[in-house]
Design goal:
The protein is built from 26 helices and 11 strands. By secondary structure, the chain is α/β, with parallel strands linked by helices.
Length: about 625
């Protein structure tokens, strides 16, 4: 603090003295009515010397500096303390020099400060300047150097907090990236195609991150990787951005080369140069195989390689554990993660539907894929065949659509990732479309990480895949755009998708051919209802008067049967009874049926009759 106070005192006294000095010159010129030759030169030198001499307790570390270097540095410190992010050399000179002939002396003072480490030149993105001292200081921004930070710490304390871990460094860069993403100005963007992107530096915030790494005692693999692979600042930011985007720490699509290019550059030529610098075959990221190009669902995409992940984290990351994967999916995607373990006996479907389900499971097995490939080679070339399996399950509520998806995942020994329409739809313009892209891109990422295709369950699909219209409102246009993206995504889908709906009639016809299987799950037949009652009831706690065949005569679906049993259990627990009697079950079952009838307007609705043949 003593050093900063000394410079503030110097700058303040000099500014006051300069004001008095300028007023005296004006007064003398006015009286003599003529130009005063060399007046400012002589008086300005005396003024500078008297100001510096008047401030006592000059720190020992400054005794080797000339007066012009001292006063220049004092004004730089004053600007920095005033939170000026960009201290420009010509602005400091304007405050210091009255006589143009003295400008070169102050510029030489800047060079003196630079050579001794007190300041350093700072090139703003997109700037161009004469790189020959001392005139380079006129057009350049100025940053405080290592000597200043060392002296401010007194050799013991440090100006900035050191990083305690690699994760702390990554978090700091994530925060910096958020500031760039949210700032629409060109401060952070390169707009001069002549700039050397391997040497360009960024603003003071990023410089402070670099200074914190310099004083950190811990190992920071991400910084070591930057040095090892000779990465520029923008290449390092892109690499860290890909990691942050992948893990949900940065809400920006760093996998899209065009978006990243526009984030860091302005102007057609600058963007072209930046794109080649970041993603070109000769660039450090691609050449060292830290990133790789991939064909995403909606076009060209970039992702981290295993080497890139290892470089940033300093250790080889194997396959994620299930718990890590669950946490990351929950945090970073729109999906919910399940590992269902469902037996075949839990599912009661018509024989034809069950056969289709078994055929789908076989087609996704190793042997099934080989046979499909041999069949595809025999088909006319114009046909082709979808590489993924897409299934539309439709039917009344409670007929086992979600259960069927869980059964598929269980039989194929794959995770089930669920997404509800409510998570995709947004009231903000453009966000719903962005969420659709996220669904397919995140699914592709999980495919690569897991080494197989998880089952993607899209519940209430009619909310997202409904009929398109020619509406002119913003909402209509948003829905049409969103559905067009879904159509495009399904066209290229290479995984396993199960969409469910209670109202197939609401789906747009264009989606029909996007589904390999369209399976209707009707209300269960009587024999299936008997099996459903047996599977849901606590058989060891039933009263002697229970007749399951009579219960099965009531045309309930599997979901409704489960609700009836749940209500009966709660009722008996409340009554303090240890068994369920027939009257309780029958009353609740009839209430459930009546509720459905009322909701759907009567018996005439499909699947809602009580005929025992249903």
């Amino acid at each position: 603090m003593q050093l900063a106070q000394y410079f503030m005192c110097i700058a303040t006294r000099h500014a006051l003295a300069m004001e008095v000095h300028n007023n005296e010159i004006k007064e003398r010129l006015t009286k003599k009515k003529r130009k005063v030759s060399n007046l400012t030169y002589n008086d300005e030198g005396v003024l500078l010397n008297s100001v510096i001499s008047s401030v006592r307790n000059k720190p020992d570390c400054l005794k080797m500096l000339t007066d012009t270097a001292l006063i220049s540095f004092a004004y730089i410190i004053k600007a920095k303390i005033g939170n000026d992010p960009y201290v420009l050399g010509h602005e400091i000179i304007d405050k210091l020099a009255c006589d143009p002939e003295r400008i070169i002396e102050y510029l030489n003072g800047f060079t003196e400060l630079n050579d001794s480490g007190w300041i350093r030149i700072f090139e703003r993105p997109g700037s161009s300047f004469i790189d020959q001292p001392p005139f380079c200081w006129l057009q350049s921004s100025i940053e405080l150097g290592n000597t200043f930070h060392k002296e401010m710490g007194g050799g013991k304390q440090k100006t900035y907090r050191a990083f305690t871990s690699n994760e702390a460094y990554l978090d700091a860069v994530f925060a910096y990236l958020h500031s760039i993403i949210q700032d629409e100005s060109d401060i952070y963007r390169v707009n001069n195609p002549e700039v050397d992107l391997y040497t360009v530096e960024l603003d003071g915030w990023y410089r402070r991150i670099a200074q914190r790494t310099e004083i950190s005692d811990c190992t920071i693999p991400a910084i070591e990787a930057q040095k090892k692979y000779d990465l520029s600042v923008h290449q390092q930011l892109t690499l860290v951005g890909l990691m942050g985007s992948r893990d949900g720490d940065v809400r920006y699509d760093f996998s899209n080369p065009s978006d990243v290019t526009q984030l860091f550059a302005r102007g057609r030529m600058s963007r072209k140069q930046m794109k080649e610098h970041l993603f070109g075959a000769k660039g450090s990221l691609m050449r060292n195989k830290l990133i790789e190009g991939t064909r995403g669902t909606f076009g060209e995409a970039i992702q981290l390689t295993q080497r890139g992940i290892t470089a940033l984290l300093g250790k080889k990351r194997g396959k994620s554990t299930i718990n890590e994967l669950k946490d990351r999916i929950k945090k970073n995607t729109l999906f919910d993660f399940e590992e269902p373990k469902l037996k075949k006996e839990s599912l009661y479907l018509p024989d034809l539907v069950m056969e289709a389900i078994r055929a789908l499971i076989f087609s996704e097995s190793h042997k099934g894929q080989q046979l499909r490939k041999s069949w595809n080679s025999a088909l006319p070339s114009a046909w082709g065949s979808p590489t993924g399996s897409t299934v539309l399950l439709y039917g009344p509520p409670g007929t086992g659509k979600t259960l069927t998806a869980q059964y598929l995942a269980s039989e194929m020994k794959r995770p089930l990732i669920k997404i509800d329409a409510a998570k995709v739809l947004s009231c903000w313009v453009g966000e719903s479309e962005q969420n659709v892209r996220r669904i397919f891109d995140d699914y592709l990422m999980l495919q690569k990480e897991l080494g197989n295709s998880p089952v993607l369950l899209l519940n209430e699909a009619d909310q997202l895949l409904g009929s398109r219209d020619a509406g002119k409102s913003a909402v209509d246009r948003m829905n049409n755009n969103m559905q067009n993206l879904f159509l495009e995504g399904l066209e290229r889908f290479s995984g396993i998708l199960v969409a469910t709906t209670n109202r197939r009639d609401l789906l747009d016809e264009a989606f029909s051919r996007r589904f390999t299987y369209k399976l209707e799950l009707p209300p269960p037949a009587r024999n299936h209802r008997i099996a459903l009652w047996q599977s849901h009831l606590p058989m060891n706690r039933l009263a002697d008067d229970i007749d399951i065949s009579k219960l099965a005569d009531i045309g309930l679906t599997g979901g409704e049967i489960r609700l009836v049993v749940e209500r009966a259990v709660r009722m008996q627990a409340y009554r303090g009874l240890s068994s369920i009697d027939s009257l309780t079950l029958m009353n609740i079952a009839k209430e459930e049926l009546a509720s459905r009838m009322k909701r759907n307007g009567g018996i005439g609705k499909i699947g809602f009759g009580t005929d025992s043949s249903c």
